[in-house]
TrEMBL record:
GO annotation terms (biological process): ribosomal large subunit biogenesis; translation
Name of this protein: KOW domain-containing protein
Domain of life where this protein originates: Eukaryota
Limits of the KOW domain: 7-34
Organism: Neocallimastix californiae
InterPro entries: KOW, Rib_uL2_dom2, Ribosomal_eL14, Ribosomal_eL14_dom, Translation_prot_SH3-like_sf
Transport keyword on record: no
Pfam families: KOW, Ribosomal_L14e
Keywords: Ribonucleoprotein, Ribosomal protein
One cellular-component annotation, GO: cytosolic large ribosomal subunit
Family per similarity comment: Belongs to the eukaryotic ribosomal protein eL14 family.
GO molecular function annotations of the record: RNA binding; structural constituent of ribosome
């Protein structure tokens, strides 16, 4: 039996993937129907709005004890008390997005330095591998 870890539920932290708020975090405050949820992101300046699940990435982080239909001040207080944004930033999903953004902002010279560093690392690995292969 497969156990799902990312369930659509009130208090689940989501990342918006499309529209003017793309890349921002929000919290599911209420579930409207099987295709939409009411989200709110008072700490990330996401207005309270209904949004399709197609435009959301569900994360593994959840705000505990958030009542259904909670108003923005309550959501903001729970986010701050539980340090939800910091918890999200420690996840592999957040680290992957940060690495992607870092790579996207590299200059031409930074990409060149990265290429040289990868070449040097590859040479060291290949030399050590050749030594080990020669021993056997």
């Amino acid at each position: 039996m497969v156990e799902f870890k990312k369930i659509v539920e009130v208090g689940r932290v989501v990342m918006i993937t499309y529209g003017p708020d793309a890349g921002k975090l929000a919290v599911i405050v209420d579930i409207i129907d099987h295709g939409r949820a009411l989200i709110d992101g008072p700490t990330t300046n996401v207005p309270r709005q209904a949004m399709s699940f197609k435009r959301l990435n569900i994360t593994g982080v959840k705000v505990a004890n958030l009542p259904r239909g909670a108003r923005s001040p309550v959501v903001a207080k729970r986010l701050a008390d539980q340090k939800t944004v910091e918890v999200f930033n420690k996840t592999s999903f957040a680290k992957k997005i940060a690495a992607r953004n870092t790579r996207a902002t590299l200059s031409d010279f930074d990409r060149f330095k990265l290429m040289i560093a990868k070449k040097q690392r590859r040479n060291v690995i290949n030399r050590e591998f050749a030594k080990l292969k020669k021993q056997n």
